Structure formats: structure tokens, C-alpha cells
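Forum: Protein Structure Q&A
Topic: Joint prediction for protein chains with partners

I've read a bunch of threads here and the consensus seems to be that you should model interacting components together rather than docking separate models afterwards. I'd like to see that in practice. Below is the full input, 1194 residues plus whatever partners are listed. Could one of the regulars post the assembled result?
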Amino acid sequence: MSTSVDERVELAGIPLRNAVLTASGTFGYGTEFAPFLDLEKIGGFVAKSLTLEPRFGNPPPRIGETPAGMLNAISIENVGVKVFLEEKLPALPEGVVVIASAFGTEPAVYAELAARVSEHPRISGIEINASCPHVKAGGIEFGQDPALLGELVRTVRAVAKKPLLVKLSPNVTRIADMARVCEAEGADGISLINAVQAMEVDVETRRPVLSNILGGLSGPAIRPIALRMVWQAAQAVKIPVCGVGGIASAEDAVKFLLCGASAIQVGTANYLDPSAAERIARGIAEYAERHGFARVADLTGALETG
Amino acid sequence: MSTSVDERVELAGIPLRNAVLTASGTFGYGTEFAPFLDLEKIGGFVAKSLTLEPRFGNPPPRIGETPAGMLNAISIENVGVKVFLEEKLPALPEGVVVIASAFGTEPAVYAELAARVSEHPRISGIEINASCPHVKAGGIEFGQDPALLGELVRTVRAVAKKPLLVKLSPNVTRIADMARVCEAEGADGISLINAVQAMEVDVETRRPVLSNILGGLSGPAIRPIALRMVWQAAQAVKIPVCGVGGIASAEDAVKFLLCGASAIQVGTANYLDPSAAERIARGIAEYAERHGFARVADLTGALETG
Amino acid sequence: MAVTETSVPSPHAAIRSQARVLENRVEGSGRILTLAVPNWPGSIPGQFLMIGAGAESEVVRHDPLLPRPMAVYRELGPVKGAASGLSERSIELLYRVVGRGTTLLSEAEPGESISMVGPLGRGFPVDSGANASSGPAILVGGGTGIASLFELAKALGETDREVVVILGARSALDLTGKDDFSALGVELVCTTEDGSVGLAGRVTDPLLARLEAAQGRATVFAVGPTPMMKACAELAARHGSDCLVSLENPMACGFGVCLGCAAPRAEGGFSLVCKEGPVFEAREIDWEGLP
Amino acid sequence: MAVTETSVPSPHAAIRSQARVLENRVEGSGRILTLAVPNWPGSIPGQFLMIGAGAESEVVRHDPLLPRPMAVYRELGPVKGAASGLSERSIELLYRVVGRGTTLLSEAEPGESISMVGPLGRGFPVDSGANASSGPAILVGGGTGIASLFELAKALGETDREVVVILGARSALDLTGKDDFSALGVELVCTTEDGSVGLAGRVTDPLLARLEAAQGRATVFAVGPTPMMKACAELAARHGSDCLVSLENPMACGFGVCLGCAAPRAEGGFSLVCKEGPVFEAREIDWEGLP
Ligand SMILES: Cc1cc2nc3c(=O)[nH]c(=O)nc-3n(C[C@H](O)[C@H](O)[C@H](O)COP(=O)(O)OP(=O)(O)OC[C@H]3O[C@@H](n4cnc5c(N)ncnc54)[C@H](O)[C@@H]3O)c2cc1C
Ligand SMILES: Cc1cc2nc3c(=O)[nH]c(=O)nc-3n(C[C@H](O)[C@H](O)[C@H](O)COP(=O)(O)OP(=O)(O)OC[C@H]3O[C@@H](n4cnc5c(N)ncnc54)[C@H](O)[C@@H]3O)c2cc1C
Ligand SMILES: Cc1cc2nc3c(=O)[nH]c(=O)nc-3n(C[C@H](O)[C@H](O)[C@H](O)COP(=O)(O)O)c2cc1C
Ligand SMILES: Cc1cc2nc3c(=O)[nH]c(=O)nc-3n(C[C@H](O)[C@H](O)[C@H](O)COP(=O)(O)O)c2cc1C
Ligand code: FES
Ligand code: FES
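Posted by a regular:
Agreed with the consensus. Here's the joint model:
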């Protein structure tokens, strides 16, 4: 079913075909999904987080299953920025919107990554993955400390020549504070949430399920937490918000838009149904039509709380 | 099936028949469960959080359902400390271990509650529900700020004549810091986690599901988050830890014991199966026997991470 | 308290049980689920169950998580040839598929088992209202609210009291259960908004006529969508008759411990629908405060 | 890369599909699930599917959440009388109930549909190993590993190459699929630890004899529990023969995007079992580093 709804939205200055992006680390480098959906029928995708050099992740086991969720500790295994720019990007169809995700242990490293990907014409935007432990600051994640996060955003902002999104960690006391810091330091938008720190144990072996002991919880289980944080962040800042966390259906996606998100990202659901993102994009338009919205963009913040 | 396992455990100086308590707000005042389980076959229960005066909660809707979880915003509706001591406690069979839960907007209020329940012979311990917004401190929860939490624990500790447990909020950046504060200020133990702040939306009405907009997420969905926090807290302090969050089976409970909990609390699962707590207690003993543990207490911290 | 102790037969203690599905048939736009419940103690008209969202599997699945409240539609008595030893009794639920849980319930097949807790709540007082025993009992059911009225109609039908049952729906297809009521022998009036059966219009039309005739001596038992119950309550009040309603609030536990089902009271504060209700005197309720 | 491009027939692009359950039968201690898959492109021996944890309901349930990896056991060809229009092909999965997902799979009934993605991974090179074409092919299967070997045995059986299949299990009951292999006409040797059928002992006993006879010209294809594959690999190496294995790691996506299925490589780093495998040359793997 096709609708007369205007599906286009803008996120942090990036014009998108529709409101559905896919989340970093869950969509590979895009081409892997070609057999399952039309990459030009989704808004775009955030590529796997990049480091300066190619990087291998944690030893197995890296994943586990929990009620309505999954646990992972991959640790940013990636091909490195060079291979990404020279091999992965060119392999994508022209019309695909690509947002690069940067990950590093120092603000300077993030900045170098941002500078390098900024140069590439195929990159529409940069998303900072702030869930990396800051080595100098004794391992606390950038995204967990307003001062560290501020320094990171400021440093990257200075060199990034493309729209800059900051991906927030949910493992904080007040998400609104983190959103405000990003806005103050010039981020063009924020994406939230990253996976929730969690743990699972195998009672038969009496060992943690993950070799890393701790991992990130994702999937439908965390959706109500993500929705709450998106709501709180959207109330706190004027820059656009991209909603991420447990989205598996068009209705799920609409909830984030209503709570103030300008666009959303589909993550774990890509594993359950590799065509999920396209299905969700279609469903959002159908919802908008059914509820008399001429533009999907009008759904943003349309929650009634009176 | 009965086992030869010694099921007795001690929590914060409170001797328990077995490691299974039920969580505040999910077990009423105890007698409601008499038709479904033998109150003397579980370790005991934490009663609904008390305020000095009887109190009504939020207008409906107060609850909602999410993937593998439920959302609630009851807001501590309770009969008040007087009715609790004079009517609810006497209605319980002699052998039942009762832990009172205190809730207030000022440390002084918590202290008065603690002092009053301390007097009663039927009260085995006191659990501070630290998830109350501190009015003077502009609404941030006691459990979300180490300084506020420290002041609260110190104030209550001074007057509480019964073992003191502090129930921690999961909505914090570093749960270990909160655990350390409790230990430093003389708490006999900590219980965690309380519900995770979350939100759900009805896409047909475009309104939040809860009249309060925000609520607490509980049930299996949050279990991996609770398990992680119990693990981190148990690593950080020497005082006993009581594990709470999404426990619905004996295996779930064992995971918390292995991660360092001395006892556990069953919450939302009481709604899904009002005899859950008794079933879980039996299952823990069977697990211990199957795995060659003579005492359930030996399961505490028995996780292998090497 | 919703209804004075004396007027309600003291309820049986609730049990937790694994019910066996005997039948799960479509009737009109609704469904009727027949269960065999081990050790079922029986119920009072108006009581309900908390039933699992779908049949049990060997695998415990937590999505959807909560059980669903459902009225006991009919008590069918002992099951012949029940599994040796335990005494099974059969009951029926009348339901409509409106969401995930009821969809899963509709997929439950004969032989499968479903977990349930009940009977729960306070039922209808069979002789309620000041001059109840004398005045007529007017039962008004809308949609699946019909389910809460069958056993009440049956019980009242066995008294020497004047009883009329008014069932309303959008269309004939939505009058699931109608034939069971006809079989009771009590006077039955049906209304449909499209006139496909009975009177064209709403339940309030025949109700008005009956109330006028009763001259303030009637007792109205109204169960259905909130707007319908509210309208019936106002009509009854205007004609000096009592009105009892049964509220539908979301529930997690069903027996008074989660405090999730609170309904606002006219004089302020809240009542627990699962424990103090679901039956209330209409005037006890703050209708504006209901979701 | 696990296996040199040239040696593997280029795989068909994976599809996402709703498979229809034709049969789900018990065989010994295992089960065989027969599916009709719309537009199934066919698979290469050793490829697998990601299949939903149980049949679909109208209600999407997220517990359990992840699909399960399952080898394509047999390709049965076009389904007669398939639903109009679409071309359905039938495949079989051979599985054992070990947890929540496989328990739900075992509850799937004929007529129900299950979501699946496949064919996935790189299959077995039918002419692998330096002197493969000349030397004997020794297929060794343990437990459900048997499932990955049937189509390989069939394909090799059609070449003029010497083929022997060695299937091992605890007991006769655990040799699910044995009769299908017998029907292939290739040489079949069975071993059971309790001696209830075939040789009493382990697969390594007959394997040793064959390796000695082959004088370094054999290719071993071993699929089963990790310790078994490791033992076969060591034995093959000691006798100068190649050994291919198929690894079982937990998977979330099955097509190379979650990076959850990484297996440690002998020369350091990791390979993705779902994409670069599941078939690997034994010597590529860091066996100590496997979970
Ligand atoms: C005391 C009582 C008796 C009832 N008796 C009947 C009956 O006999 N027949 C019948 O068809 N229905 C009855 N209902 C309504 C029935 O409980 C809902 O239709 C059912 O819960 C919907 O579940 P769902 O998963 O299909 O809908 P969803 O919308 O998917 O449910 C989502 C959540 O909302 C809750 N919910 C949704 N609608 C209602 C509602 N109307 N009332 C209470 N909770 C709701 C569900 O329980 C669940 O927790 C009764 C309700 C109550 C409180
Ligand atoms: C490429 C490949 C092919 C396979 N082929 C077959 C086959 O043909 N027949 C068969 O019976 N089994 C096969 N397996 C193993 C099968 O995937 C597991 O038995 C199954 O996932 C267990 O799921 P469960 O929910 O019953 O177990 P649970 O223990 O409840 O599963 C929990 C989680 O662990 C994962 N898991 C558990 N055991 C395994 C395992 N051995 N391998 C991978 N993931 C696992 C599950 O997928 C799930 O995510 C194969 C595995 C792989 C990787
Ligand atoms: C296996 C896996 C790998 C991930 N890798 C990354 C990553 O590299 N960078 C990042 O910013 N987020 C990463 N994420 C987090 C997701 O992008 C997303 O924020 C999170 O999973 C919540 O969304 P979901 O519930 O829809 O999956 C990863 C998630 C998963 C499950
Ligand atoms: C309906 C409801 C009411 C609750 N009320 C209280 C309360 O009064 N005091 C308290 O400390 N915790 C309260 N809780 C939190 C639980 O005690 C428990 O910490 C939380 O639900 C997580 O455990 P669970 O997932 O097993 O339910 C409540 C939880 C629910 C679902
Ligand atoms: S449903 Fe739990 S108190 Fe009424
Ligand atoms: S299973 Fe996802 S990368 Fe292999």
C-alpha cells in the first residue's frame, strides 16, 4: 500500500527520504542487506562504529539472549576508517544516505576520524559513539560525564565539516543534562539510546554468558527506557533528536516520533527481520495517513499530555 | 520434591528460612497471598512502602504492559504506618518474617517512620525506599545523589533499632558509588534494583499510557540490568546485597545469588503466578542439590569469571 | 466498600489453577471459551478471573507478560469423566478479540492448558437496593459486558422478582451470547444501532421506558462500555432507582496487591476495582475521573 | 576466507521467507522438520538457515527474541500442489530439543508458518584439498552435526570419488537420520558409545583406520560437538590429510552484521562463522579459543 503522505524528514540538517535509519553496529556496512530490502527505500543508515585502525573485538561468546532482549559485547570490531572509505562506501548504491559513526579513546582520535570521514562526498553526517571509556579519565565513558562529553563534542565540532550527531549512553542519572551539553557545544542533533549496560549468567556453567562479563542490552526490552529518555531529551533541547532502542514495528517507531524524535533508528530488529526497516518506514506512512497527518514530520512531538 | 540442602540464609543480620523474599509493593500486606502460597515457606516479605499518613496514589491509568515488562506509576498508595502496625501486622501468622519499607520526602520523615516500626516486635528489619524525590533538593531522588543518600542513611541509621536495608534506584550512572555510601553510613545491607524509569505511549490515542506520563519498568525485561547492578554493587561493598529485578524462576534467582546476592526478592512475578515465591524457593534448593551445594548460602558469589 | 457485606453472598477463596481448554468457539463477532478448571470452587455472579494471555507452552514466554481479567460468563458444573482424582468444573468465558492477549486466547486449542487465578472480586448483590426484593431488576449489557450478566440473570430468574435483560450492540453479529439469555426464560430485549435485530437504537431507550414504569422501585445492573454505564446510571438516578455497574480497568494482579486498577471515588480517593469491585454502586464512582 | 573462492560453488543469494510446516516428526531422540519454502533458491551442502524460535502467531512475541541457526539437512525439491503462483521448494531440518527455541520449534504444527532467512554461510567445497579429487572423502558426523553432512554425502556420492560416512552417537536412539544416509548408497559406518548399534566406541576409531589406509590422500569433513571435531582434526593432521569442520557459535543475524559469531583464528584475530564459515579448514581455527 502506498500513501499520499509526505515521508521526508530532516535530521540535524540531513534531508532524509523517510524517518527510518538503521542503527550503528546492526546494519554492517549496508550492502549486507541488499538481498532483503531496497536500501533506497529507507532514510539511510549509520555504519558500524569506526576506529582509526582496523580492530578486532572481544573473544567469544559475544552475544546472549534475554527476555525480549539481547546482550552483546562485540567491542567495536571494524574494518578501520581507511577500508571503510575506500572499499565499503563505493560498494553502496548512489542514493543511499550514509552516516559514519566514530569511536575513540581520546577526543583527538574522534576528531581525526571526523575530519577524515568529513572529506568523503558519500558521507551525509557523523555520529559520535560516546559510549567509549575515556582512557585518561580512568575508564568512565565520555557519555557518562557532562564535562568529558562537552570536551569531546567541542573537539569534534571544531573539525567536523558534516552534520554532527552525538549518540548518548543511557547509563546515566540525568539524560537531559547530557543532551544539553551536546546542544551547548554545537552538536547538530543527538541519537539515543545506546545499549543499556547489563549482564547475564549461565546457571549450568555458573559463568557469565559473555566473555567480557558485562555487555549491552538491546531489543524490545529496553524500548520503554529509550522512549522515556528520548522524551526527556526532547523536552530539554531544541536540536533534533533521533530515537533508538527496541524499535521493531511501525507503531514502536511512531511512539518515538510522538515523544519528540525527528527520525528513528532500527537496531536489533534488523536481525529478527532483515527487511524490518523498510517495513517500518511503510508502516509509519500508513499510520500518518490513517491518523490524518499529511507529513510524517508532523508526528514529531505530537504526543498529547494535557 | 524436598532436598537435604540447608536453605537458611542471613540478610543484614536477619535470619531467613530461605533466600526468597517478596518485593515491596508487589505483595500487599502479605495476607492477600494466603490463598496461593504458605507464607511460612518463603523467607519473608517486604511490605508496601509506608508513609506517616495514609496516602492515595495517582489517578488511573496506573499500569501498562511492555515487552517482557510492566510499567507502573502507583505513587506509594498505602494505609499509613498506624494502620499497618495496628491492623495489618497482627493479621499475619506468627512465623512470617516482615520487613517494613519506609518512604518520605525528608530524611526526618524516614527517620520517624523507622523509629516507629522499630518498636514493633513483628518487624524484623527496615528497608528504606530511596526512590522518593527529595522535595528540598528540588525533586531529585535520594537514591540518585550520593550526598543526599548519605544524609538519608545516616539520619535513619541513628534511630533505627532494627537491621537497615537501603533499596537503591537503578536510575544512576554508577551504582557502586551508591552502594559504598550506604555501607559507609552504616546500612546493614542494600536491596537493588527498584523499577527503571520508563515510558509507554498509546499510538491510537497519542497519549502516554500512564496518567503520570513516566513510570517504573519492572519484570523480566529489566533482569539483565538488575543482575549487572547487583554484580557491580556486590563487588564494591562487604555488606549483604539483596537482589531484585525481573526474577520469575529459580534459575533467575540463582543468577543473582551467584553474582553476590545473599537473598533475593520476587516482585512482578507475584502477579503472573501468586505462588511464584514458594516455587522459586523450592527450585533454588533443588538447584543447589543438583549442583552439589550443601547450603544455599554457598551459592552467594559463586560465579566463576576466570 | 463497594457493596455492603450483607448483600453479597460471601465469595469463595480464589485458587490458582491450570485450566484445560474444552472448546474455543466463534459466536458472532465474539468468542466463547469453555474451560475445565480443577478444584473450581464456583463463583458469584459478576466475579472474574485473571487468565494467562494464551495457552501455556512448555516454554514460559514473558511477552505478553500480564494475565488478562475476564468475567466468568457461565458456570456449567462438574465435568464428566474428569481426569482421575481431581474434581473439575467447567466454566465459560465470553470475549472479544481486541489486542494481543485476546488474540492469543483465540488461538488456544482444545486440550491446551491456560493458567488462571479466580474467582476474584465482589459479585453482584442478588438482593440489592433499598426496596430491591420488591422492585424489578433491569439488567443492561453492552458489548462484552454481557458476560458479567448471565449468571446474575439466571440467579434473579430463580427469585420471584421481575427481571428484564436489555442487551445492546452495534449489530446483530455483536450480540454474542444472546441465545443463552433467551434460553433462560427471563424477559429479553435487544437493541442494535443498525437495527439488524431487536429495537433499532441504544439500550437507554428501552431502559428509559422500564424506569418510568418502575417509578423508582427498580434496580439497574449495567455492564458495558463506560459511556453506556454512565448513561444508564444517570437515567436510573433521574428516576430514583438504584444502579450497579461493573468497571473495567487495566489490572496486573487481580487480587488487590498491585494497586494498578484504582478507580476514582465520588467522595475522593480511589477504590480497587479488582478487590472492592468490579461491581460498584454507580453513585460511588467519579465518572469524570475514569480514563 | 575460510575456503578458497574457487573450491566452493558460488552460493545463492539469501532470501527472507515465511516457511510452511509440512511435517515435524520425531525420529529417535531427535526431530525432523519438513518445510515448504516459497521461492527457495536451493542451497549448497553445509549451508544453514536462521529460523524463528517457533511457529508464527498473529501476535509478534519477543520472548524468545532471536532466530536460531539450523543447517539445511535435506533438499527435497519442488512442492507438488504449492499455493498458486509462488514456487515452493521443500527442505528438511534435523534438530534436537536442547532449550527454549528448539522446544518451541518442536511444538510447530503442520500448516503453521515459521519465518526464516537463508541459505546462509559458505558450504563445503565438494572438491577440496590438494589431492582431493583422487583421495577418499571421509565424512564424520556427531550428534546433530549429522544434519550438515547429508547433502554433502549425496553430492560426493554422485562423483567417482571414494566416500565413507561415519556417524557417531551415544546410543542407537541418537542416530537420527541414519536411515536417510543408508538410502544414499554410500558406505556408512556407525559408532555408538553403548554399542547399541554399529561399532562400540567413538567415531575416531574407524576414522583412524581410514586415515591410515588413505596415506595422507583423504579429506575429512567433520561436523559435531567441538571436542569431536578437534579430535578428528588432530587425527587428520597427524596422518597428513586435510580436515574441514563446521562450527556452531551463537548467532544473532546469520549474515555477517552483528559480529556476534566470531571464532578465533589460528593466526590471530577472528572469523565470522556465519559468513566466512560455518565451514573452515580445521587448521585455520584456534581450537583453544573456542568457548
Ligand atoms: C473485571 C473485568 C472483567 C472483564 N471481562 C471481560 C469479558 O468477560 N470479556 C471480554 O472480552 N473482556 C473482558 N474484560 C476486558 C478484557 O480484560 C480486555 O479486553 C483484555 O484485557 C484485552 O487484552 P488484550 O491483550 O487483547 O488487549 P491489549 O490492548 O493488547 O492489552 C494491553 C493491556 O491493556 C489491558 N487492557 C486492554 N483493554 C482492557 C480492558 N477493557 N479492561 C481491562 N484491561 C484492559 C490488558 O489487560 C493488557 O494488560 C474485562 C475486564 C475487567 C477489568
Ligand atoms: C551454523 C549452525 C548450524 C546448526 N545446525 C543445527 C542443526 O542442524 N540441528 C540442530 O539441532 N542444531 C543445530 N545448530 C545448533 C542450534 O542452533 C542450537 O541447538 C539452537 O540454537 C539452540 O536453541 P535453543 O533456544 O533450543 O537453546 P537455548 O540454549 O535456549 O538457546 C539460547 C541461545 O543460545 C543459542 N545457542 C544455544 N546452543 C547453541 C548452539 N549449539 N549453536 C549456536 N547457538 C546456540 C541459541 O541460538 C539462543 O540464541 C546449529 C548451529 C549453528 C551455528
Ligand atoms: C550487536 C550490536 C552491536 C552494536 N554496535 C554498535 C556500534 O558499533 N556503535 C554504536 O553506536 N552502537 C552500537 N550498537 C547499539 C545500537 O546501535 C543501538 O543503539 C542499541 O542496540 C539499541 O537499539 P536496538 O534496541 O534497536 O538494538 C550495537 C548494538 C548491537 C546489538
Ligand atoms: C506495581 C508496583 C508497585 C511497587 N511499589 C513499590 C513500593 O511501594 N516500594 C518499593 O520499594 N518498590 C516498589 N516497587 C518496585 C519493586 O519492589 C521492585 O523493586 C521492582 O518492581 C523490580 O522487581 P521486579 O522486576 O521483580 O518487579 C513496585 C513495583 C511494582 C510493579
Ligand atoms: S489489579 Fe492489582 S490491585 Fe487491582
Ligand atoms: S551471526 Fe551476526 S555476524 Fe555472524
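The two ends of chain B are 34 Å apart (CA to CA).
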